[in-house]
Amino acid sequence: MAFGPASQLGVGLFEDTDPIEVWPGISSEDAEAVIRAVYRQVLGNAYVMESERLAVPESQFKLGELSVREFVRAVAKSDAYSSRFFDKSPRYRVIELNFKHLLGRAPDGFDEMKAHSIIWDEGGFEAEIDSYLDSDEYQEVYGEDTVPFYRGYKTQTGKKMVGFTHMFQLLRGASSSDFKGSLAGNTPCLNKNVIQEIPTAVIPPSGGVSGWSFQETPLGARTRHGAGATAEGKVYRIEVTGYKSPGAVNRVSKFRRSNQVYLVPFDQLSKEYQRIHKQGGVIASITVV
Prior knowledge:
This protein is mostly helical. The chain has eleven helices and three strands.
């Protein structure tokens, strides 16, 4: 689904870059590019020193003895990964990063986080890594020969809408690093939001408005009172632009300014999201007001 100018939301590079896939007879130069892409994805865009590179798995991959999936597994179980994330971060921070690095999305809710925490307790960190790479989801999306890529910033069949908003808390631009460049540091980005399945604000990583009328900082904790007032009674501000007919030949809006703003209570958020999508709208931001 189109959700707004990709460059303003920090995912333009991911949107414009095709998935990297290995094919038979790949050249040594292309194999090296795949290896770099795996390091970049699995290690969260962190700088990799020469001494941290996995000489034996790299050689096996170049010789065709390891698939992309198995090379990803080697990197995810390496000292380079564990020293950056496993050894220095709380458990739920590591799990949310595992989802991001290995499945390309945010956790779908507390049940998924809890399930992976149990796997960790029973089998250790290596079993936790295996649970992503051996999953049906991984095979269906990436298979054996495709480098994992970020996909959670788009709507996904069978996944909750909150995961779409949560992904923007984990993915703050193509130049950010999960090791040093994240504002969250070693603390979980999602925390209670994933536990309670609360959508989060979708704003540009720079915080700049760049012509959009939404505000980065909420005006206050506006909630509903009276009928329908619950713990989930927050109101969300959705800014939509680019209304157009999905099948129209002329895809340029006839209106000089086509931005629309909607204030939507939590319990209507998913329905409104689907309505905007069906009408050809492009979501530019979702913020709590």
